[in-house]
């Protein structure tokens, strides 16, 4: 098991970073200089826990390389170019790669890091780590089936564990605010996306919690794909107590 990072998923192709949907992220040359040219890596562009929207803003901007300095790191958790090896053997390969990149003390390029994994002893151990992540402001935990192969997209051998649920949704409209939010956006009118690739499923709901004053003045555009956190689904399939988390980077 490992920490579920609250960043932007990024595949290193050997020459560039790509999002889950194949869109490029324009990292500065110094940031990628030590990454391998002959291997594909899977990881997360990450700034800090609870800092998702800032991370998205930096990695989606093409003309502000200075914003990456001392802020963004690439946290690697798998190596798709060695997909036929077991998870444990892939981790051994990554460990050797990062010892070469960063040296035994790990100080050469602190913005390139290997995600720490540990063996999950039992359910109680998982809950203990989940509670620890919660106290630290973390997103949750990822659990991996021993001996599993690398798979693209959703996988039964790699699961995320959180204290809450989340989903993707497409913004269909803006609801006018009232009271202190008069004249700005009071809530986003959304349609839930489900399945691989995110298909609209006809479930509509409003999401106002989590919107800052800045976002209410300039809300995500209609058609934007956002991440929504919620407690559970109602009997009609609507997310209960939805909270805006951020706009998808890819």
Automatic annotation (TrEMBL):
Residues 3-162 form the ATP-dependent DNA ligase family profile domain. Pfam families: DNA_ligase_A_M, DNA_ligase_OB_2. Its cofactor is a divalent metal cation. Keywords: DNA damage, DNA repair, DNA replication, Ligase. CDD domains: Adenylation_kDNA_ligase_like, OBF_kDNA_ligase_like. Residues 176-248 form the DNA ligase OB-like domain. GO terms for molecular function: ATP binding; DNA ligase (ATP) activity. GO terms for biological process: DNA recombination; DNA repair; DNA replication. NCBIfam families: PRK09125.1. This is DNA ligase/mRNA capping enzyme.
